[in-house]
Write a sequence for this structure.
């Protein structure tokens, strides 16, 4: 009898292993005995032995798991396969019955940690048909691509805060569009934006200009069942919701030695500052605040200046708002109060009096804008504090692996063009009586430092 061997397809159902589980794999045996007897009759010949039972197995099963990086193989002993359907949830797996009808093999390898259900129809040695179901799970890979999203769930951030997806390993350029397809940004009200790959392991999303206050944002990442290549599989699904807070934009005018702080477009404070001296200038351009600390131990050796040199320093500095990875902060500098508003003496930080620095510390949100003007030093676009807002929209979109038509159609001005204008002349603003006071006082340094 010639048995049909059709192309079989296959569904994801929970549970592992139905039937007997042998060392060789999942086993199902069918036993049929032939022959009849009549009371009182005398046999004239030896009765034939019954056919050996048919045994169906999934090859390579160990504790209910099969290798993910090999095709799935179903085998029958003492029989012949008629059809095999393998189902992985909502996906049927294509496969082919072999020439001799004893094996079925999937045409692709498997997906790690996916459950597979094989419905097998086969004939035993007596040509009786049987159907059985086998369940297995693909083993996990030891190489994963995971992602961390920022801002975090429930945060309120400044109008300059980008959405950041950081990956656990490098994403090949050939896969970046596929990765972006697994990242989703939704906003209320609707905002057009684009991704920009900062490195092989990090991609940012932002609008053409600063966020509008009050915008509600949801970002999600779904990497499960995504094959990156070279044995790497995506892992994890995450969602974060955050809110854009009040618009805090501070303009640091290096030439005027003043800092102008705007709250929702209104100038609320003008503070004397001392920026970086000529040898260590504060970088020009748009910075974002991304970290706050009440005290930081600043060490000149970390930026290449020996501690025991004339320009060296190693001391605790208070009320620090970080605006660059390169070591630039807005912070309290009681040692330079005499120079603040008159001359630039720092190593690149923005020096404030202790009272002004304390006020700014409590005022600032993560992702606020601190824009530096009239400095001779260009922005360092490789620095995360300056990477997002110092390039044109065209340059930003060029870093997107698959930009939307809406993003490509935009031609906005530079982001800083949307900032409030600087006051026409220097002015002095007295801090309100309710300004917070530091919980501890820094000791002044004998010479201007950082």
């Amino acid at each position: 009898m010639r048995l049909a061997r059709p192309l079989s397809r296959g569904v994801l159902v929970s549970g592992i292993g139905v039937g007997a589980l042998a060392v060789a794999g999942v086993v199902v045996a069918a036993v049929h005995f032939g022959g009849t007897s009549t009371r009182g009759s005398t046999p004239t010949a030896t009765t034939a032995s019954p056919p050996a039972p048919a045994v169906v197995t999934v090859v390579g099963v160990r504790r209910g798991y099969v290798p993910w990086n090999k095709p799935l193989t179903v085998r029958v002993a003492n029989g012949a396969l008629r059809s095999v359907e393998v189902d992985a949830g909502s996906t049927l797996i294509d496969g082919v019955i072999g020439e001799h009808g004893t094996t079925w093999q999937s045409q692709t390898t498997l997906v790690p940690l996916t459950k597979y259900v094989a419905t097998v129809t086969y004939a035993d040695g007596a040509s009786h048909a049987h159907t059985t179901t086998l369940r297995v799970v693909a083993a996990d890979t030891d190489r994963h691509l995971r992602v961390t999203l920022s801002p975090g769930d429930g945060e309120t951030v400044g109008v300059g805060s980008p959405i950041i997806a950081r990956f656990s390993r490098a994403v090949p350029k050939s896969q970046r569009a596929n990765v972006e397809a697994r990242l989703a940004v939704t906003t209320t009200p609707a905002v057009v934006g684009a991704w920009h790959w900062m490195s092989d392991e990090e991609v940012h999303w932002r609008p053409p200009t600063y966020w509008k206050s009050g915008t509600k944002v949801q970002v999600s990442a779904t990497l499960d069942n995504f094959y990156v290549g070279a044995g790497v599989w995506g892992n994890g699904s995450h969602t974060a919701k955050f809110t854009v807070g009040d618009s805090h934009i501070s303009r640091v005018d290096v030439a005027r030695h003043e800092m102008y702080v705007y709250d929702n477009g209104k100038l609320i404070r003008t503070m004397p500052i001392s920026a970086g001296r000529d040898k260590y200038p504060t970088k020009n351009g748009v910075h974002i605040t991304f970290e706050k600390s009440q005290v930081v131990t600043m060490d000149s050796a970390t930026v290449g200046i020996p501690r025991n040199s004339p320009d060296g320093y190693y001391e605790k500095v208070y009320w620090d708002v970080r605006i660059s990875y390169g070591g630039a902060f807005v912070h309290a500098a009681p040692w330079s109060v005499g120079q603040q508003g008159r001359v630039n003496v720092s190593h690149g930080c923005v020096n404030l009096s202790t009272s002004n620095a304390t006020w700014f510390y409590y005022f600032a949100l993560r992702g606020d804008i601190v824009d530096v003007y009239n400095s001779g030093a260009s922005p360092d676009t490789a620095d995360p504090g300056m990477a997002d807002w110092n390039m044109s929209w065209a340059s930003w979109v060029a870093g997107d692996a698959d930009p939307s038509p809406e993003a490509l159609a935009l031609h906005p001005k530079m982001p800083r063009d949307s900032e409030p204008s600087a006051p026409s002349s220097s002015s002095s603003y007295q801090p309100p009586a309710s300004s917070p006071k530091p919980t501890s006082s820094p000791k002044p340094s004998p010479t201007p430092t950082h």
